[in-house]
Design a protein that fits this description.
This protein is an alpha+beta fold and about 140 residues long. The protein has 5 helices and 2 strands. Helices cover about 40% and strands about 10% of the residues. About 5% of the residues have low confidence. The chain is elongated. It has 2 domains: about 60 residues, no CATH class; about 70 residues, no CATH class. Strands 1-2 form a two-stranded parallel ribbon.
């Protein structure tokens, strides 16, 4: 669990990028996976510390899509951590490709922000774009 974030951190270490700060935000809606996820993140913290990389981690035991939809609808930050920026430089995810029932809470939630679909993959990507920082080149 948390392998994609761990892979990015591993790459940062291999590229010898030091004296940087990483704020890692993780959503996991399966409470049975949280212990394994936290073990992976603890290893990441140790490795970062060994290479002078500051890593802070926030783990949310909630569904990203419904949380993101609620945030989009209210146009407020959905993180409870004060002074946390909900805009990200980089988003890594493994979007689920799973059918959703037409009568499910998730489907109704998505419909409330005009996203109509029968699976979770596309709405995951659509919700993500609301949290990326915009950069001018």
């Amino acid at each position: 669990m948390g392998i994609l974030g761990a892979a990015v951190i591993d790459r940062i270490i291999k590229e010898q990028l030091t004296d940087i700060k990483i704020d890692l935000t993780v959503f996991e809606n399966d409470k049975n996976l949280l212990n394994e996820l936290r073990q992976t993140l603890d290893i990441c913290k140790e490795k970062c510390s060994e290479h002078n990389i500051e890593l802070s981690v926030s783990v949310f035991n909630s569904d990203f899509i419904t949380t993101a939809v609620d945030s989009i609808k209210s146009e407020t930050q959905f993180f409870s951590v004060s002074n946390f920026n909900t805009r990200f430089d980089l988003i890594i995810m493994n979007p689920p490709y799973k059918k959703i029932r037409s009568d499910s809470y998730t489907r109704k939630s998505l419909s409330s922000v005009s996203i109509e679909t029968s699976n979770l993959y596309l709405p995951s990507l659509l919700c993500l774009q609301n949290f990326l920082k915009m950069k001018a080149n």
